[in-house]
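Morning run. Coffee first, then this:
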Amino acid sequence: MARDRSSTRRRAGMLAAALSALTLTGALSGAHAPVTATPEPRGARPRGHDVSSHQRRVDWYTARAEGARFVYVKATESTAYRNPYFAGQYDGARRAGLIRGAYHFALPNRSSGAAQAAYFVRHGGDWQPDGVTLPPALDIEYNPYDKHHRCYGLSRGRMVRWIRSFSDEVRRESGRRPVIYTTASWWAACTGDSRAFSGDHALWIADHGSSGPGRLPGGWRYWTFWQHGTRGRLPGDQDLFDGSAARLRAFARGY
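And here it is:
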């Protein structure tokens, strides 16, 4: 993923024809004709991407034609920043027929997990069981603003408690546990490879190896989303969902 305010940070089941047609028909405005996208091979994982203010005004219809089926959009950071392009990106993705969700970039040294979660939900991080809204996502990784405090100055125990506080507040306000975006190295260094979240949180693993994610962090046995690169055919970072298109829609509904 990419930082919004300074330097850049690190960063495929076919949809049933009827569902795809229904989504596009209901979502298109008069200014756009339906997009004809090449269907994925049966059994292929849905492709997606994640964007922030760096991508600004995304051509979502082109992105869908290029194969995008889902996207995560950065909404907030800490409790003082909102992506100024969020509404256009989030709503634009939906109009083009993509399943979309919002993510929050954590700065655990700035305020509590609960405070940042509440700010996030108020400013785009809410969830509805409508089949087109992905659960809220927590982006937690190395501190991009201070290389000397890569874990934000928090002990491993405090970091685990911070993440739990964020998760509990997101669940209280939205009804879903957040997806956790992280890297195996950060999770090991900053949480002690905590296994406290693997049982009830979907994993969004960032690993830019070409053959698939390597070791998974913290007791997770499988990944739900994989961010596999920062360059590709889709705007922003490149992602896959580990399942069919039908499973992706079920996951969005909360099943």
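The first strand starts at residue 47 and ends at 51. Good start to the day.
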